[in-house]
């Protein structure tokens, strides 16, 4: 290590130094820091003295090993004084680390000696960290489902990484080259000859092009965070009522078997009659008098494939088969509804040569692999002797039940981690009473100011989220600036863009289509996200709304908030609208301001808006001239 490449950064210029008392949740603080800053170590002090460190590697292992607590590492290497030569020797020995702390004799942190890592290395670390966190999140969600469902559960895991590692060098090279060659001509990187070997006896001219074209149509719609396929009836894929058809069901089934999982369990690169659910249905039809119906609830990709489990109405007679691409090891948690947890990796490795049965990865396999997997699952179900049980007619068994009617997926949670970091939001002292208002402010009026003032009388800190969706008369940037200027004298107010998931077209589209709405619906998801994610993270206990006597969409939204948010310990406080003409009971509204603007009635605008808004509007319209 060349000492000339090393530099000393003193403590005052570091962003990675934290007092222990500042940290409420070490894992969350560390994740936020490592995703947004260049340092790879947090330095944790107590009363000004070094207590310990937490590295990006510590956090990745915490996620990967599903530990109960991320502990501060109190055994770390450090230097007593600024010593570039010893620092260089340390970096030579430990190639994965690029910084080392420098302490005084009294154990006070002076700073760090470091060298700059290549950005590609830093990005690789962040990608690995994010993947480990995401896998842990899905593991906990599957655990939550198994713990809450009435159904009997079989959990199958497949290690994509282990399968590849156990292939021969030549087979690994084949898969690598396929990924590198993938383009419009070589779909998934396979040549025409390789696709013929993939399809075996089922190959026919044009089948690959047909599957590719149909797959491009399989774009799910998202409702309340749950993905559903549109109805499609093609040569390869047939979707009906939101999920893929298993074409050989019995006529009168009295037991249901649900398949949930990503593309492999759904049969992404196979016809309807070549999937794991199809082959399992065939075995059941041949060998059992009991009528079992197998439902293929899988999806392309892992991101939404588990959401539907939580919203499905299941009974104690139902069987759920979950496919997961990794090791989970849930059995030690002693879940009564989990009948079996099994790794299917060895079933794959029995197939020779495996690359003839795969496209570009073990998750994209052909129908012969599916047959083998289905046979293994069938044997597992038979071994548990549950198919011979008569379907129970008692009320507790027959009553279908879903865990919830919405699902907040990983990408929403991950988005808010970025969102909080972007705007410097974090949960402050719980002794502070916090509230929130979501406002469109189209434009900012005296009514909005009144609502904010009334809210401040009840809380210590108020978050004002300005609707970021640009579907209003005024652009978001103008609305946002008007709010900022309108509350500039109020120190306990934070004005923040609402972002992608706080009252947006993705969460409540009807809010932006009020003039076309016949029946108000689909607003619950927006409110659930606010309660379960935003309010929980920021410690918000009150949500304030203005009374709405005219707009039925907003009125319905307010009523739904009153119904849902108390589930998250958030009280909804409705503030009466302020009037500008009490004699005639005329209330202030942004609609009146826009009407006055069209009429160039500045006297009315001054009546309805604070001075800051009036000045802003005059500047806007003067510029337009």
Any overview of this molecule?
This protein has 625 residues and is an alpha/beta fold. 38% of the residues lie in helices and 17% in strands. The protein contains 22 helices and 24 strands. A 5-stranded parallel sheet has the order 15-14-16-8-17. β11 and β12 form a beta hairpin. The termini are far apart.
Protein traits:
625 residues; alpha/beta; 5-stranded parallel beta sheet; 22 helices; 24 strands; 38% helix; globular
Write the layout of secondary structure elements.
Blueprint: E1 7-10, E2 17-19, H1 26-36, E3 41-46, E4 49-55, H2 56-64, E5 79-80, H3 84-93, E6 99-103, E7 109-114, H4 119-148, E8 152-157, H5 160-165, H6 169-181, H7 192-199, H8 207-217, E9 221-223, E10 226-228, E11 232-233, E12 238-240, E13 243-244, E14 255-260, H9 263-266, H10 276-287, E15 292-296, H11 307-311, E16 319-324, E17 338-343, H12 345-349, H13 367-383, H14 395-398, H15 410-423, E18 434-439, H16 446-456, E19 461-466, H17 476-486, E20 493-497, H18 524-538, E21 540-546, H19 552-564, E22 571-575, E23 579-581, E24 586-587, H20 590-598, H21 602-608, H22 611-624
Largest sheet: 5 strands, parallel
Q: Uncertain regions: pLDDT < 50 for 5+ in a row?
A: none
Summing up helix and strand content along with how strands pair, one would put the structural category as alpha/beta
Which of globular, elongated, flat, extended, rod-shaped describes the shape? globular
Please bin the fraction of helical residues.
25-40%
> Looking at the chains present, what oligomeric state does this protein adopt?
single chain
How much beta, percentage-wise? Answer: 15-25%
What's the average pLDDT?
90
Q: Strands of the biggest beta sheet: in what spatial order?
A: 15-14-16-8-17
β-strand number: 24
As a whole number of angstroms, the C-alpha radius of gyration is 29 Å
Through-space gap between termini: 64 Å
Number of helices: 22
């Amino acid at each position: 290590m060349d000492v000339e490449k090393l530099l000393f950064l003193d403590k005052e210029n570091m962003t990675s130094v934290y007092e222990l008392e500042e940290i409420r949740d070490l894992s969350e603080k560390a994740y936020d820091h490592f995703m947004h800053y260049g340092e790879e170590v947090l330095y944790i002090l107590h009363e000004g003295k070094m207590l310990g460190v937490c590295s990006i590697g510590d956090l990745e292992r915490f996620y990967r090993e599903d530990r109960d607590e991320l502990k501060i590492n109190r055994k770390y290497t450090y230097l007593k004084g600024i010593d570039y030569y010893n620092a260089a020797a340390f970096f030579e020995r430990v190639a994965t680390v690029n910084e080392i702390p420098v302490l005084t004799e009294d154990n006070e942190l002076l700073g760090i000696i470091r060298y700059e890592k290549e950005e590609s290395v830093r990005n690789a670390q962040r990608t690995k960290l994010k993947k480990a966190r995401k896998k842990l999140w899905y593991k906990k969600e599957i655990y939550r489902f198994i713990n809450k469902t009435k159904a009997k559960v079989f959990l199958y895991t497949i290690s994509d990484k282990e399968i590849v590692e156990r292939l021969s060098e030549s087979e690994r090279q084949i898969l690598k080259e396929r990924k590198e060659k993938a383009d419009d001509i070589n779909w998934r990187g396979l040549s025409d000859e390789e696709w013929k070997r993939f399809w075996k006896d089922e190959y026919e001219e044009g089948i690959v092009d047909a599957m590719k074209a149909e797959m491009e149509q399989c774009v799910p719609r998202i409702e309340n965070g749950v993905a559903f396929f549109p109805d499609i009836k093609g040569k390869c894929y047939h979707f009906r009522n939101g999920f893929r058809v298993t074409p050989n069901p019995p006529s009168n089934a009295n037991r249901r078997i649900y398949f949930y999982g990503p593309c492999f369990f759904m049969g992404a690169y196979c016809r309807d009659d070549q999937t794991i659910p199809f082959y399992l249905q065939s075995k059941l039809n041949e060998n059992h008098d009991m009528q079992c119906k197998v439902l293929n609830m899988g999806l392309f990709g892992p991101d939404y494939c588990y959401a539907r489990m939580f919203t499905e109405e299941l009974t104690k007679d139902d069987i759920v088969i979950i496919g997961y691409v990794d090791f989970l090891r849930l059995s030690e948690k002693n879940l009564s509804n989990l009948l079996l947890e099994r790794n299917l990796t060895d079933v794959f490795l029995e197939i020779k040569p495996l690359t003839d049965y795969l496209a570009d990865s073990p998750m994209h396999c052909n129908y012969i692999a599916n047959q083998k997997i289905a046979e293994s699952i069938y044997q597992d179900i038979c071994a548990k002797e549950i198919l011979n049980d008569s379907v129970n007619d008692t009320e507790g068994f027959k009553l279908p039940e879903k865990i919830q009617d919405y699902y907040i997926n990983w990408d929403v949670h991950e988005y808010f981690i970025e969102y909080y970091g972007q705007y410097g939001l974090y949960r402050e002292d719980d002794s502070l009473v916090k509230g929130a208002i979501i406002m469109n402010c189209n434009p900012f009026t005296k009514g909005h100011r009144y609502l904010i003032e009334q809210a401040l009388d009840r809380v210590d800190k108020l978050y004002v989220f300005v609707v970021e969706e640009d579907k209003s008369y005024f652009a978001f940037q103008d609305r946002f600036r008007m709010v900022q200027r309108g509350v500039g004298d109020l120190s306990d107010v934070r004005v923040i863009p609402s972002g992608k998931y706080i009252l947006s077209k993705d969460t409540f589209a009807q809010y932006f289509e009020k003039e076309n709405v016949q029946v108000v619906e689909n607003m619950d998801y927006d409110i659930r996200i606010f309660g379960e994610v935003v309010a929980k993270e920021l410690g918000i206990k009150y949500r304030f709304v203005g009374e709405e006597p005219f707009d039925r969409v907003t009125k319905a939204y307010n009523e739904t908030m009153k119904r849902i948010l108390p589930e998250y310990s958030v009280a909804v406080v409705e503030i009466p609208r302020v009037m500008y003409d009490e004699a005639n009971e005329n209330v202030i509204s942004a609609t009146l301001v826009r009407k006055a603007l069209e009429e160039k009635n500045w006297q009315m605008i001054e009546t309805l808006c604070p001075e800051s808004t009036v000045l802003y509007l005059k500047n806007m319209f003067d510029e337009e001239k």
